[in-house]
Design brief:
With 236 residues, the protein is of the alpha+beta class. The chain has one domain (6-234): Alpha-Beta Barrel (mRNA Triphosphatase Cet1, Chain A). The chain has 6 helices and 12 strands. An 8-stranded antiparallel β-barrel has the order 2-7-6-5-4-8-9-11. Helix 2 (61-67) packs across helix 6. The chain is globular and about 45 Å long. The termini are far apart.
């Protein structure tokens, strides 16, 4: 497996503020319509189905960080998009959060999206791909392995006044788990939609305050945390 150079963090900066607003899944389509009316489509990233394999340790240390709302959090994931751009490559991403700030590095793998989509989470290739993180200089927890596959639909926009990047994620569901880590699988759709705002501000852009009227609330929400917790409850 060949090593590719890491892509720079999104936006060309090492740290940026990321805000999340959570609302009931039943209002997701309406929220997307509101954002679409007030923002312009992202010219670089079209709407797509996002599939993500989240990694964790056998004792679920990274999931515990999210459940316990630790100030310092680490996220390791393998992500691909459908329909993909170019060769539809799967990307290894390491994302760290310090409070409300995030730092992310991403490296292209030699795994195609089509290949990864069909692999069981116990497959050795999904562990071997973590070797690509070594040249990045980002320390990873030991004994990482694939834990959970999440899938959702993402729509991306640019808010014209603040230039913030907005994404609306809906139809969030856990479709596969690694029984060695999480337990037995069941198809679980989260009862939430998520609006993510990435940019310099510390609050939702004024133009998008209409989302608050739809029931959107600011939260330190983690898709992996919510789905992982549901899986643990199911298996106990």
């Amino acid at each position: 497996m060949s090593t590719a150079a890491a892509a720079p963090p999104e936006g060309g900066i090492s740290l940026e503020r990321e805000l999340k607003y959570v609302l009931p899944a039943g209002k997701a389509v309406l929220a997307r319509s509101v954002v679409s009316a007030l923002c312009r489509p992202d010219p670089h990233y079209p709407a797509a189905i996002v599939s993500t394999i989240y990694y964790d340790t056998p004792d679920l240390a990274l999931l515990s960080e999210k459940i316990n709302s630790d100030y310092l959090k680490t996220k390791v994931r393998l992500r691909w998009y459908s329909p993909g751009r170019g060769a539809a490559t799967a990307f290894l991403e390491i994302k760290s959060r310090v409070g409300g700030l995030r730092h992310k590095v991403r490296v292209a793998t030699s795994l195609s999206a089509a290949t990864v989509a069909d692999l069981p989470l116990e497959h050795p290739a999904l562990v071997q791909v973590l070797e690509l993180a070594r040249p990045l200089g980002v320390p990873l927890p030991t004994r990482l392995m694939p834990a959970l596959l999440l899938r959702y639909e993402r729509f991306r926009f640019i808010e014209p006044v603040s230039a913030s990047r907005i994404s609306v994620d809906l139809g969030i569901e856990a479709v596969r788990v690694n029984p060695r880590v999480v337990g037995h699988a069941f198809l679980h759709r989260l009862p939430h939609a998520v609006v993510e705002i990435k940019g310099p501000g510390n609050d939702i852009p004024r133009a998008l305050h209409a989302l608050i009227n739809l029931g959107a609330r600011r939260a330190a929400f983690s898709k992996y945390g919510a789905a992982g917790l549901a899986m643990l409850r199911y298996n106990h």
